[in-house]
């Protein structure tokens, strides 16, 4: 069986972060492992508390996995602060790394900051060059490129700028666009569009986490980037459409879907 590792924050409500990623790996038939960077107290309405873990706790988790188990892909999500990013970067130097998908998580759906300001620079400098793919939403891509993104033309421009920062592929996600949910992929040469209709459903908590971990799972199974993203986009579209409602805010997507 193929494996996948998520390096991300814990979401006790089970929709996003580590919990959402492991559910996604499972749904893809890939053995999931996790390195927890931060523990959040959150639900469908808010993030009420965040505890970033000590860098040593993160390095030790990474070492325990890499010393013993073959990791076929890595998904990176919430990193929270600069010290955590440095610990990951330093530990990574000791191992051969598989394909890495990095979702530069900055703000929760409910508006809480999940990445401290000075950490953005470290993600770009230390981690972007190691990534096979990064998956910012339009707000994150805007912040990283100092631009405002309102449409697919702006998304293309952001892709070009982000590519210069080192990742081999860029996927700017359009979940926060007004009329469509079009994601734009750039491989440094060509653009590919993954255009699906917007689904009118407030239960989109963890969509970004599920998309990036589905792509990582597909990489583990040997898919190339376009096939991995296409299959992940189909998955997340079904998972949003098949949504159920728990909690009084933005509920999670449904991983119990027919595939
Ligand atoms: N209402 C929607 N209808 C269809 N697809 C959607 C919808 N909302 C998000 N998506 C899709 O879900 C995926 C995640 O995109 P989004 O831009 O919401 O990421 P995100 O903001 O990082 O997610 P999160 O809310 O987990 O932080 C993308 O493929 C996007 O196109
Ligand atoms: C732990 C965690 N990671 C990512 C997100 C973004 O959806 C979230 N809300 N919580």
TrEMBL record:
Q: Which UniProt keywords apply?
A: ATP-binding, Kinase, Nucleotide-binding, Thiamine biosynthesis, Transferase
> Looking at the Swiss-Prot or TrEMBL record, what is one Pfam family this protein matches?
Phos_pyr_kin
GO MF annotations in UniProt: ATP binding; hydroxymethylpyrimidine kinase activity; phosphomethylpyrimidine kinase activity
Show where the Pyridoxamine kinase/Phosphomethylpyrimidine kinase domain sits: 11-254
Biological-process GO terms, alphabetical: thiamine biosynthetic process
Q: Cellular component per GO?
A: cytosol
Q: Show the stretches that span the lipid bilayer.
A: none
First and last residue of the signal peptide? none
Task: Please give the SUPFAM superfamilies that the UniProt record associates with this protein.
Answer: Ribokinase-like (SSF53613)
Q: What is its EC number?
A: 2.7.1.49, 2.7.4.7
The reaction(s) this protein catalyses:
4-amino-5-hydroxymethyl-2-methylpyrimidine + ATP = 4-amino-2-methyl-5-(phosphooxymethyl)pyrimidine + ADP + H(+); 4-amino-2-methyl-5-(phosphooxymethyl)pyrimidine + ATP = 4-amino-2-methyl-5-(diphosphooxymethyl)pyrimidine + ADP
Which InterPro entries does the record cross-reference, listed alphabetically?
Answer: HMP/HMP-P_kinase_dom, PM/HMP-P_kinase-1, Ribokinase-like
Q: In which pathway does it act?
A: Cofactor biosynthesis; thiamine diphosphate biosynthesis; 4-amino-2-methyl-5-diphosphomethylpyrimidine from 5-amino-1-(5-phospho-D-ribosyl)imidazole: step 3/3; Cofactor biosynthesis; thiamine diphosphate biosynthesis; 4-amino-2-methyl-5-diphosphomethylpyrimidine from 5-amino-1-(5-phospho-D-ribosyl)imidazole: step 2/3
Report the family membership: Belongs to the ThiD family.
Q: What is this protein called?
A: Hydroxymethylpyrimidine/phosphomethylpyrimidine kinase
């Amino acid at each position: 069986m193929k494996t996948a590792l998520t390096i991300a924050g814990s979401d006790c409500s089970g929709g996003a972060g580590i919990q959402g990623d492991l559910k996604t790996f499972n749904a893809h038939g890939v053995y999931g492992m996790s390195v927890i960077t931060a523990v959040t107290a959150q639900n469908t309405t808010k993030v009420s508390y965040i505890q970033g873990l000590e860098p040593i706790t993160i390095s030790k988790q990474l070492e325990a996995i890499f010393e013993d188990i073959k990791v076929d892909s890595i998904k990176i999500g919430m990193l929270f602060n600069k010290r955590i990013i440095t610990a990951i970067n330093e530990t990574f130097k000791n191992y051969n790394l598989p394909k890495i998908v990095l979702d530069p998580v900055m703000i929760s759906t409910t508006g809480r900051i999940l990445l401290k300001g000075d950490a953005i620079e470290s993600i770009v400098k230390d981690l972007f060059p190691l990534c096979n793919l990064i998956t910012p939403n339009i707000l994150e891509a805007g912040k990283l490129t100092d631009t405002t993104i309102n449409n697919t033309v702006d998304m293309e421009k952001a892709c070009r700028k982000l590519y210069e920062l080192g990742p081999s592929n860029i996927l700017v996600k359009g979940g926060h666009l007004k009329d469509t949910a079009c994601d734009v992929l750039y491989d440094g040469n060509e653009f590919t569009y993954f255009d699906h209709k917007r689904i009118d459903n407030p239960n989109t908590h963890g969509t970004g986490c599920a998309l990036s971990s589905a792509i990582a799972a597909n990489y583990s199974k040997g898919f190339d980037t376009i096939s991995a993203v296409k299959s992940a986009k189909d998955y997340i579209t079904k998972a949003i459409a098949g949504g159920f409602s728990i909690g009084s805010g933005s509920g999670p997507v449904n991983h119990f879907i027919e595939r």
